[in-house]
Amino acid sequence: MTRNVGVIGLGAMGGGMARSLRRHGHAVNVFDVRAEMAQAFAAEGGVACASLAELAGACEVIVSVVVNAAQTETVLFGEGGCAYAMRRGSVFVMCSTVDPNWSIALESRLAALGILYLDAPISGGAAKAASGEMTMMTAGKPEAYEAVGTLLDAMAAKVYRLGEQAGAGSKVKIINQLLAGVHIAAAAEAMALGLREGVDAHALYEVITHSAGNSWMFENRMAHVLAADYTPLSAVDIFVKDLGLVLDMARASKFPLPLSSTAHQMFMQASTAGFAREDDSAVIKIFPGIELPKKP
């Protein structure tokens, strides 16, 4: 069944998700603060909305793919925000990585306006978002799932239902980010040591990616280092934020996270050194005395 769906935020993930929805036959309305991104999507057959309120008035389900909780607040409750234009019984699907307690509170705030809510962080990267093969970690009331129908499956290969109350999806996503951040930091440290010891970087990459020490993050991110391409698919500051959320969640229950703390400091160091908006693999640039590969 064709649905009127809105997607807010057409970055690396949101753009691919919007296209996946359109491939499945849905009428996709989009909004992005960069108007040229929305217009480019409209040229492919979607609908570019001039405002959040316009998008909210046209859609049964809104999928928000902005960076963080602050941006989500603006999308919903800022001047001209969509919360005040959404129809009762419509659904807001929140895909950002946020504090689980904030997500829990958001469910209640939207319920007071008659709006259903799904806590639905995402993972998998831009390529999987574009192909509809990413992972969604979701939680929400049964009526919210019923209202979105098959839309989640149109965007993701794996849709995990983790509970009937918001927050569970965000908790699982934060644990995923713990591992992702630590793995990137460890991969950068290993490659940096190899470079310091004079090992050929391409040979090291070949060996590790076919050995027990490999990880998805080593294989993916160290390829960026070898190509000397720090175009931000996921920026250093994303892990400053996400590992900060990891540590905040653990601190609240006095749970020690020594590896996460170290990885967070590494990303903080990279950020303050001027690499905040570079690809997160740029965390390797904090290591002294190494010569990084240069662009061919």
How would you describe this structure to a colleague?
Helix 4 links the parallel strand 4 and strand 5 (91-94). By secondary structure, the protein is of the alpha/beta class. It has two domains: 4-166, NAD(P)-binding Rossmann-like Domain (Rossmann fold), CATH 3.40.50.720; 171-286, N-(1-d-carboxylethyl)-l-norvaline Dehydrogenase, domain 2 (Orthogonal Bundle). The longest helix has 29 residues, at 168-196. The mean pLDDT is 97. Strands 1, 2, 3, 4, 5, 6, 7, 8 and 9 form a nine-stranded mixed sheet that branches. It is built from 13 helices and nine strands. Helix 1 runs parallel beside helix 6, helix 9 crosses helix 13 and helix 12 (236-252) runs antiparallel to helix 13. The chain starts with a strand and ends in a 21-residue tail after the last helix. The protein is 50% helix and 13% strand.
**CATH homologous superfamily identity of the largest domain:** NAD(P)-binding Rossmann-like Domain
Structural class: alpha/beta
Radius of gyration: 20 Å
DSSP E strands, number: 9
What is the C-level CATH assignment of the largest domain?
Alpha Beta
Let me know the average pLDDT.
Answer: 97
Total count of domains? 2
For this structure, the CATH topology of the largest domain is: Rossmann fold
Give the second-level CATH assignment, the architecture of the largest domain: 3-Layer(aba) Sandwich
The share of residues in extended strands comes to 5-15%
Distance between the termini: 49 Å
Shape: globular
Summarize the amount of helix as a percent range. 40-55%
List unreliable stretches of 5+ residues: none
Q: Which sheet architecture does the biggest sheet show?
A: 9 strands, mixed
- What is the succession of H and E elements? EHEHEHEHEHEEHEHHEHHHHH
**Count of helical regions:** 13
